Amino acid sequence: MRTTTLLTAARFAKEGEAFAPVALPHTWNAKDGQDGGNDYWRGVGTYQIDLPDPTDGKCQYIEFKGANHVATVYCNGRLLGQHKGGFSTFRFDLTPAMKKTGNVVRVDVSNAPSDIYPQTADFTFFGGLYREVSFIETAPAHFDLLKGGTSAVFVTPIVSGTTRLDLFPVEADGCTVSVDLKDAAGNIVASGSAPAGSHTVLTLSVKNPHLWNGMADPYCYTAEASILRGEEAVDTVSVDYGYRSFHVDPNTGFWLNGKNVPLHGVARHQDRLDKGWAISRADHEEDIALIKEVGANTIRLAHYQHDQYFYDLCDHTGFVVWAEIPFISRFIPGKEAHDNTISQMTELVSQNYNHPSIFFWGISNEILIGKDREDLRRNLREVNAVAKTLDPSRMTTMAQVTMTPMESEHNVITDVESYNHYFGWYFGEAADNGPWLDKFHALYPDRCLGVSEYGSECILKWHSAYPENHDYTEEYATEYHHDMLKTFSTRPYLWATHVWNMFDFAADGRDEGGIQGRNNKGLVTYDRKIKKDPFYVYQAYWTTEPMIHISGSRFVDRAPGERNITVYTNCPTVTLVVNGVEAGTLEAVDHCAVFKDVALADGANTVTAKCGDVSDTAAFNGVAEHNYAYDLPEGNDAANWFDDPKAREARKPLNYPEGFYSIKDKVTDLLANSETAAIIKDAMDTFAHSSMMSMMGNDKDDGEGGIMGTMRLSDMMKMAGKAFSAEVKRQLNDALTKIKKG
């Protein structure tokens, strides 16, 4: 029978360095990939792994569940092969290279720049053997371990109970393939067998199957497949699967097993503070528990294939999953990159075919950050065709960058579509989301539309009683997410919405809000220790178990004019108690109650919000003046802007006189006028070298096409973060408003 041994120790060295012991999984970018500067090490790292001694008469394999980006594998100096793609499972046959003892596998892993996706994206590409590595022994007759990293057992269930099994044994002449289908209690509900062939097909029937029904009832069956030589089972593989049906309606959204189920959820990156991608099963379990706690029923697993164990957790928790490949941000021309998109999609679909939680295959993300071109569109159509050919039972989708025109050909490539919209953060206002969505739905009523990303930076040390876009405060993020939930709640035609992001994650090129190397849009901090206030806004909307949360509890010092207390809840009313004295009861409107100008005593105060048996308590200090430590300093230093007359002047509202140019105009319009083009030349250069543009790779936009041309100059400067101070924005606007249009 098959045995699997987890390999947890290795020796590791970067190019030109001495080997040192490391534990597997491992990444060499755990620290430098999260500290900012866009300077994390990308190169070749070498691992030496000692193997168990082989068993006579057995075959030996080595399995890698993730090595980023390219892995070249040797056993005892003999080249076994190379794998390109950092996120899928792959295996090599060790048997011809094995000795009786003292066997060593060497793996050269490279995350150096190449034509293997991803190369351009707003997250860190951690290098290393960052997922589990295993040594597998089997009998000569076994289910094919070299079938693209799959189990070689594929289950296609239909809700009627008809169940097709495609099985791929090797060296099994004269053997029989036998399959038992078992319910969740382990009872055999159907069985069948057939002579073993290189591709053996069985069709079994389960009477009145118990349906996999999402979060309400994630019921899984198990297919246990064996290769029998006579009466002896020489190899056995078990895979979980589920019976379910679904469709997406352009007016009513997602339907599961004949019931309308609005999909509301989160996106997830896999990395963690000081670990990068080299995380444990316990880490995966904590993530799934937090996502369940917030009340989500769908997860977009961005922007690459995730660990098999996480898909397993989704199967048994009931999440509806969007799984995707890292065909992202910028198209890479050429055969190697093209072939890599095909191989990554092939591996994603084939390796995850049996997971009942997966409903959607994502073919790309924000690929029009770079410029559109015919070979890109052709590549997208080919990747979509791969997914549909390998798996006709699921739908394909893609995540479009905001500036993708509604009429774009990209919007008819996949079965359903979705947009990444950051109105209210990078562009415009949160209120712009609803009208945009309604316009698209009115123009294309037969298309299924979702929102695949939306979010706001949320940094826990910044606070304001008067939050505004790009102040990075917890209060602005909370208001933004509340506005988004109100927008979505009145638009049932959206097939799914996914918050960006459930967790903060590493993006080493970032430098925003006083934090380097991190995207801070998570509902939970990078270390998973703190649930930010927006977490509880979602919980108020998405959960039914009574909850109540006082927002702004980290905004402790409250001066006069800063003493509103905001409470989020799924209860009908909220009672506020201040220092033991009841201060009033309010009805919750849109899951929110705002107690105006609460009478706080000087010094320490204890405030409790309650409804029935649930309550939340926070401590606030009544102070005479605003605590300026809550304000993000302007510019690159930590000087107090409030002591600087020039900085105070820069913060005054800007003027946008009608009939004149301003920073509110689109970059293309400003570049079309020689006078305004000269004014913004330096701004364009600054943006091109900002931390946010580091994700653009070599495809820098000249403003005539792609992402920058369709943006307003003010939004471009927002996107660049601290690269543009308030004073610089004012100077640019003052210069532009002197030039008349027409």
UniProtKB/TrEMBL annotation:
Keyword terms: Glycosidase, Hydrolase
Domain (Glycoside hydrolase family 2 catalytic) ranges: 253-543
InterPro entries: Beta-gal/glucu_dom_sf, Galactose-bd-like_sf, GH, GH2_Domain-Containing, Glyco_hydro_2, Glyco_hydro_2_cat, Glyco_hydro_2_N, Ig-like_fold
Glycosyl hydrolases family 2 sugar binding domain segment(s): 60-137
Molecular-function annotations in GO: hydrolase activity, hydrolyzing O-glycosyl compounds
Segments forming domain Glycoside hydrolase family 2 immunoglobulin-like beta-sandwich: 175-244
GO terms classed as biological process: carbohydrate metabolic process
Gene3D superfamilies reported for this sequence: Galactose-binding domain-like, Glycosidases, Immunoglobulins
UniProt xrefs under Pfam families: Glyco_hydro_2 (PF00703), Glyco_hydro_2_C (PF02836), Glyco_hydro_2_N (PF02837)
Annotated SUPFAM superfamilies: (Trans)glycosidases, beta-Galactosidase/glucuronidase domain, Galactose-binding domain-like
Family of the protein in this entry: Belongs to the glycosyl hydrolase 2 family.
Name listed for the protein in its UniProt record: Beta-galactosidase
Record organism: Candidatus Faecalibacterium faecigallinarum
Lineage: Bacteria, Bacillati, Bacillota, Clostridia, Eubacteriales
